[in-house]
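Listing S7. Sequence submitted for prediction.
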Amino acid sequence: MPIEKYDLVIVGGGITGAGIFREAVKTGAKVLLVEKQDYASGTSSWSSKLVHGGLRYLKTGEWRLTLESVRERQRLLREAPELVARQPFLMPIYRGRKPGKTTMRLGLWLYDRMAGVASSKWLSANQTLGLEPQLQPEELLGAMAYDDARTDDVRLVLRLIFEAIGEGGNAFNYTAARPLREKNRIAGVSLSDGRSIQAPMVINATGAWSDAWSGDDRNHFKLRPLRGSHFIFPLSKLPVGRAVSWLHPQDRRPVFVYPWQGVALYGTTDLDHAGDPGAARMSRDEAEYLLQGLSAQFPALRLTARDALCTYSGVRPVVAGGRNDPSAESRESTMWSEPGMVGITGGKLTTFRVTARQVLSEAAKQHPQLMPSPDEAVFRKAVPRLDDWAQLQYSARHEQVRHLDDLMMRRTRLGLRLPRGGEAELERIAKVCKPELGWDEARWQQERARYLDYWQRQHSPEHVL
């Protein structure tokens, strides 16, 4: 095959790679993005799905990260309202427990000032229970009400990628890449489909997988993969009308639950993860920890893992800072470089645009064409949100779907929101998939079996019972 030439190759199709792709295309450069699995199939589909400033970072003194995050949150609320929506929160305050009312009022006053909005206020115990009657009422003084935001993490990634493709970029999922070296520098990549790509700059945005991507000169720091696990419950079992955040009684870590796409999303843990990040799933210890926290705040509901629709886990690519407590590690991103390549890891979903511009500014030191263009709106135009069935058909036709789990877990989130991953709906879904994707009955049965095996292995609550 002939060698193809690009100005930039981005390896990794999560939120970081997608953000860089979107910003790089705006410079007029010829850009290719490649992802070895499906877009957003790693960490970026298993986040807590919150676009937030990180209130807890104020406690650890990470002022700049909080300021940057709340400003990006406000920007996304303005520029992508169909993807990022306001999420009201309650933080119940109890007599004799930390945090106290004064501490929370001060912290949220600072949070609001950083964001340039005034959303926080104190609610009495009666007002709090009127909004969320299932809360633990004993010793309840009231609650701090404040705002953050929620999103569909995968649709955010896909929006960035397909907008960039629409403006001249090129992207392939299910395409692995290895670095090509020439005279002590990275000179491009070789792809798993046999092609060779020549480029003066390659960006490693593989996140939790960056240790496996050879050629990186980053001995000055170490990756510390941290697993975060979540339950998804039916709203009928965990009836919350807004987000509720509280400190877990065991270790005083913040946990939260909120309504998301018709279900209740509850998390999260923060534990060192060994092994393949793509095989992460909730452990029984994590399930016990989360259920203990839920029982403390919603005791009357008596929820167990059997009440859950599913579980999911993601691995955060956090840079090791020598802290004993995983939750004390910074969520700041870290860059490194060598001739022909820039690497990036860490960071937050909320700050993808800032991270992308920082990476391109670093890359421009070697290839000036990549200097990011003047700051402008993240998204050019509003795109209406489709219902699940219209989205299935649109995605099958237009969004590089290769497997059934691409549709069920990422292009839509039916696999998270329906009992047993939507098994009862699969024959109806087949009527959409087969003609749009050109699958015959044998291929459909193969995909169906593959998907259900994956869902049972990775997401079924049965494995934590």
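Caption to Listing S7: primary sequence and predicted structure tokens for the chain studied. The first helix runs from residue 15 to 25. The chain has a mean pLDDT of 94.
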